[in-house]
Structure formats: C-alpha cells, structure tokens
Amino acid sequence: MDTFFSSGRLTVKTKNSESGSDILIVGSKNPFKLKIELTHAWGRPLLHIMIHDSVLQILSFTEKKYYHGHLGTPDSLKFFPARLDPDQVWALLRAYPVLREYSRAVSFKGNQITLLNGKAEPVQVVDLYSESTLPRLVSFPEQGIKVSFSDFKNDKGLKYARKIRLDDSKTETILMLKLKQMVFNKTLPESIFSLKKPKDFEMLLLR
C-alpha cells in the first residue's frame, strides 16, 4: 500500500475546549507526504496541513497565517496537539498501526505483544482483539500515548479502522477520527502535495 485518500470527521478535545471539523486526507508512503484539509461542515476551509518527512507547513484560514517548521515543535502542538513522530502520524491517518523499530518481542499476557528496545525497555505495546487478532489498542509507554482502533473494514485485502481514538495523557488531549471512506493505491498527481501561501497571509516560523 503506497497511497491513500480518505474523508471523515475529526474531533479534538483538550482540557479547555472541544472542536470538530470535516477532514480530507491524502497520503503517500514513499516518499512520505501527507496533506490534510480541515473544513467546517458547511465547507469553509479552516486549516490545510502539509507534512513532508518531518517538515510541517500549515495554512490557517481563520488567522490568515502561513506557518512552517517541523513536526513536534512546541508551536506545532497548537495545530497538531498530540506529540507524534511521522510514523505515528502515518499510522493514525492510515487507520492501521505501524510497528516501531525494536530488538525483541515478548508477550506478558494473552492477546498482547510488547516490543522492547536494546535496553529491554518497552517502546510499543499492541493489544489484539481475541476474536480476530486485529489490533485493538496500541500504546507508547514513554510518550504516554494510546491509540485505539475499531470498526474495521477490509478493502480488497487492505484493512483499516473506521474509528480511531488517540489519548495523550501528558497533554490531556483526545483525538477522535471517524472515517466515511478510504481509497487505496490510486495514482496521485504531484500537484496535490502543494501548499501555496496566499499573498495576504502572514508567514511565521514554528519553534
């Protein structure tokens, strides 16, 4: 699976607020690129987000500002509130887990696999549905992040979850993604992965 595009609904809950928007996602695995468009239910654009490797560009239509920097910087958390690296972002939006680099895999209980690094520290824990062995919950102990996957669909042998929830305990943030459609392995024109700053938008660096 090299490319996908999907649409659905994104809800973000923080300590002080809750917001929802329609979402359109286009992804390419090699080279790694993600384009995310968030809009109001009636179609007005809110944010366009472009991720290329770890480089992050954001058009904020409500602020009339263009932000650029890198994924995971403190400023970027305003728009992408969970502390994720590119592989984790891909897994979240592709709606299926990606295994992290590890030295050894162990199982401390049924329907669960723990991936350990060279120091025997857990880097990722995967809980499985007992009836299907599909991934139910993926935990990243060091980051304090858990991602749950449910309502799976099989599209010509490619499985994905139609409901994804991310809980970030350190920032007290919850992301909930409900997908309406997902299409795999279509040819994507390079023009899709572009983000042009309107002339009247202020340019700011994400630090």
What does this protein look like?
It is a single chain. This protein is mainly beta and 207 residues long. It has one helix at residues 86-94, and strands spanning 3-13, 18-28, 33-39, 45-52, 55-60, 65-70, 104-106, 112-116, 122-128, 135-140, 145-155, 158-168, 173-184, 202-205. The chain has a 14-stranded mixed beta sheet, covered by helices on one side. The mean pLDDT is 93.
Helix and strand arrangement:
Elements (H helix, E strand, L loop, with lengths): L2 E11 L4 E11 L4 E7 L5 E8 L2 E6 L4 E6 L15 H9 L9 E3 L5 E5 L5 E7 L6 E6 L4 E11 L2 E11 L4 E12 L17 E4 L2
Parallel strand pairs: 6-14
Antiparallel strand pairs: 1-2, 1-13, 2-3, 3-4, 4-5, 5-6, 7-8, 8-9, 9-10, 10-11, 11-12, 12-13
List keywords for this structure.
mainly beta; globular; 207 residues
